[in-house]
Amino acid sequence: MSISEIYQISKLNQLTIDFIKKKVSTQLQELKTQIESSIVFFSSSYIDCSDGEELNNDILEPKYMSGYKTMIELGYENMAKINMMLEILETSDRSQTNKFKYDLVSKIIFSSGHFLNVFNELSIISMTKNIEKCLDRSTIYKNWSSHTMVEEIHNLHKGREKFALNEKINIFNHYINQIILQLCKIKLELKDTYTE
Fold this sequence. Notes:
Elements (H helix, E strand, L loop, with lengths): L12 H8 L3 H20 L13 H36 L3 H13 L3 H32 L3 H44 L6
């Protein structure tokens, strides 16, 4: 990721203002719909390393950065909407049974802030690795005069880069798995939830 590539999270103020004006039954139905669409969204968000691409950083790094951008922009929006809807429903739905369910569901799902921290941490790891790589290379070329040694160390760096990228992609896909699990658990919890 270059420094000029900065991704913005969605502004949800109008959505929130509009949501509180709706009847509780509509709010609950929209939450269930949002959970369904979020499951579909996150299910399509894995970074795929099939077809031998796992050996090609030039293909995988842009895929990873595209996935990261999608999570910051659209993944965050999905999670923030669900969290916002849950918080409003906890207040607007007067049913004590439903309040208990909303509270339980709120404990299952990543908060919007936690979601953002998880994926931003993956980006920081990426940037830190690139800085380390540049510093290491400058030290190598300054201190080693043997071309063979420089080439060998350069190859080791390439191997480390591949491992680091693979590690980031695995962590990214792991978090997608976790989010889908959370959303499916929430779907089950809210399955028999109704309002008058």
